[in-house]
Amino acid sequence: MGSALIQYTVIIILLILIAIPLGRYIASIFSNENHRTDRFFLPMEKVIFRLSGIDNRLEMTWWEYVKALLLVNGILLGFAYLILRFQGGLPLNPNGITNMDPTSVFNTAISFMTNTDLQHYSGESGLSNLSQIIVITMMMFTSSVTGLSVAMAFIRGITRKGKTIGNFFQDFVRGHIRLMLPLAILLTLMLVAAGVPQTLDANTTVQTLEGAKQVIARGPVASLESIKHLGTNGGGFFGANSAHPFENPTALTNILEILAMWSIPAAMPIAYGRIAKNPKQGWVIFGGMMAIFLMMLLTVHLAESAGNPALVERGFDSSQGSMEGKETRFGISMSAIFTAVTTAATTGTVNNMHDTLTPIGGMVPLMLMMFNTVFGGEGVGFVNMMMYALLGVFIAGLMVGRTPEFLGKKIESREMKFIVLALLSHPLAILIPTAIAFLTPLGMGAISNEGFHGITQVLYEFTSSSANNGSGFEGLGDATPFWNISTGVVMLIGRYISIIALLAVAGSLANKQPVPETIGTLRTDNATFGVVLTGTVLLIGALTFLPVLVLGPIAEFLSIG
Amino acid sequence: MKAIRISLLMVVICGLVYPLLMTGLSQLLFPYQAQGSIMKDSKGKALGSEIIGQKFTSDRYFHGRVSSIDYDASGSGSENYAPSNKQMIERTEKEATKRLKENPGATKGDVPLDLITNSGSGLDPQISPEAARFQIPRVARATKVSEEKLSSLVSFYTEKKELGVFGEPRVNVLKLNQALDAIVQKNKG
């Protein structure tokens, strides 16, 4: 425990040290302030806008913003569909990978555009090098910057006065040029130095010490690996994802990947605090997220280091914890924190197999995805947290009999309708398809682990899809049309309904006349509000899903042995 | 139309310029790692990747972890057995029995768990130092190298936690066996 605590503490301190300047930088990028890096970045942006003929200074209403976002995402989806469908005959295919079948393409294209990165294929055998770079790597950038843009538009909406919330193309291009690309270039080189391959050559064959032949898959891994984490994407180059030694060769690359996927979501509340001119409120939100995160991290750590109850009971060694599905170089600590961060920041990259986690250990990633807001995915996690904040203000306001206000703007029925729509779409998109899967042989046939764990496998798949996470209880035989189509639809619902609803809230709040703060105003930048916020997330998140958690992981925990 | 143009521009920048630029720079700066850290023997023949596990079954070698894909590195992954899965429990029992036969006197609880469980990737290049030490009696019998010598070999190839803090101590099985081969050759010569 002592050694784990030191590792966790160092990582969290590093996170905070990175998040503070990063939050400020993000705020400056999206406030379109002058910055000393303009000399370098501005000419590139000008070229892009000139070539595309877009006026990036044109302000958009929330609906215009949504339309531009959906249009760009739709075009990229179509592009991805064509490449994946016909990759067999396209260049950069040294290993002779064949075309992907239509429902797999449907699933994969949606999966990467929605920042989910659920994978019903294995990269080694399913994708050509061209697909890995021009579809997968490309969408890892565009989907994460789309999420980031949504968050920034949302923040503008609630902090400014007027009809508009910014220009989508401006946010989209600046997010790439000033944030994601520079960070990805830096991280790629660090990963290659540590052993992650980056080559366009075909797989290589070696003769092992025992004289057998071993074919070793490789490719442009590092350039995908870096943005996979920075953009909270999570789709691996290889089937085993970040458990694969080529994706994550050492404990140090493990920390780099953890920090890469965690830093931007953690910097969002700080960026928000700066733009809203209320840094304290940013920290209250950060604190709320961190409090829930620590509870979850502690739970998964304790469960995994105690070992698998079924093996411990049979007299096996329990000193190493539960090592099935984990890598030697990571052990329990580096696996537990990776699992917590990847589902908190809804990245979906895994460095150990979540299906093999102990019952309580496996419940942690599931719950973090059900919350979908403890740091959360690029941009959208923060927006979800703000949704809970508005909800918290509303509930607290009703309890004490005051008009709920946030940043001096009244929260009224129009906003609440959109918030409830966003709030309910998540559990409905999880629970209804889960129930349907249990009713059909197409769904039931995919379950690979019998008993209560099988329930969790199905639940996890849809939770991961709706939360746009992308990790899985991978034993599930999900490479079938049923799963490709059902999870594809759930990913779309999970992504776009809440984006549209919450930008509508932002547009509506932007339009409102601010009311002056009085002594009766419920403060949203103190510890009391932090407790209200955390309570709202826990209460609504936990209560919505409690029954199904009892059927899955909790029942497995009670019956294992 | 404008949206199409900007989308395609981002495809070119993020999907072609960036990955190709990264490939070029990586090949220039870190050619060994960028190609997959492929180790060569004295004759220049590729014998494996430093960071990808290999299958070892001979008694003369230290063995790696259980791999349901038999260390086939053209793929990766594992069976994804649940903690309550019966096949997983049976497989672990079977592996433990096998290991105990090689090491008489030991009991089930003595077998280091990493040695008898499936890694996540199926390609784990490393085992815990305990798992390496547990195999010393068998390797000593098969290679006629003394247990003391093997023990110091394992110590030499034990990598500590990164920066003394992060991850776990571990032994790279391929490197250990390569060194073992060299010792056996020398003894013969």
UniProtKB/TrEMBL annotation, chain A:
It comes from the Bacteria. Keywords: Cell membrane, Ion transport, Membrane, Potassium, Potassium transport, Transmembrane, Transmembrane helix, Transport. Its main location: membrane. It is found in: Cell membrane. One of its GO terms (molecular function) is P-type potassium transmembrane transporter activity. One of its GO terms (cellular component) is plasma membrane. The keyword Transmembrane applies. The chain crosses the membrane at residues 6-27, 65-84, 133-155, 176-196, 251-271, 283-303, 381-398, 418-439, 482-506, 527-555. The keyword ATP-binding does not apply. InterPro entries: KdpA. Coiled coil: none annotated. It is a multi-pass membrane protein. Part of the high-affinity ATP-driven potassium transport (or Kdp) system, which catalyzes the hydrolysis of ATP coupled with the electrogenic transport of potassium into the cytoplasm. This subunit binds the extracellular potassium ions and delivers the ions to the membrane domain of KdpB through an intramembrane tunnel. The system is composed of three essential subunits: KdpA, KdpB and KdpC. Belongs to the KdpA family. This is Potassium-transporting ATPase potassium-binding subunit.
Automatic annotation (TrEMBL), chain B:
InterPro entries: KdpC. It comes from Marininema mesophilum. Belongs to the KdpC family. The gene is kdpC. PANTHER family: POTASSIUM-TRANSPORTING ATPASE C CHAIN, POTASSIUM-TRANSPORTING ATPASE KDPC SUBUNIT. It is found in: Cell membrane. GO terms for cellular component: plasma membrane. This is Potassium-transporting ATPase KdpC subunit. Part of the high-affinity ATP-driven potassium transport (or Kdp) system, which catalyzes the hydrolysis of ATP coupled with the electrogenic transport of potassium into the cytoplasm. This subunit acts as a catalytic chaperone that increases the ATP-binding affinity of the ATP-hydrolyzing subunit KdpB by the formation of a transient KdpB/KdpC/ATP ternary complex. GO terms for molecular function: ATP binding; P-type potassium transmembrane transporter activity. Keywords: ATP-binding, Cell membrane, Ion transport, Membrane, Nucleotide-binding, Potassium, Potassium transport, Transmembrane, Transmembrane helix, Transport. The chain crosses the membrane at residues 6-30. The keyword Acyltransferase does not apply. Coiled coil: none annotated. It is a single-pass membrane protein. The system is composed of three essential subunits: KdpA, KdpB and KdpC.
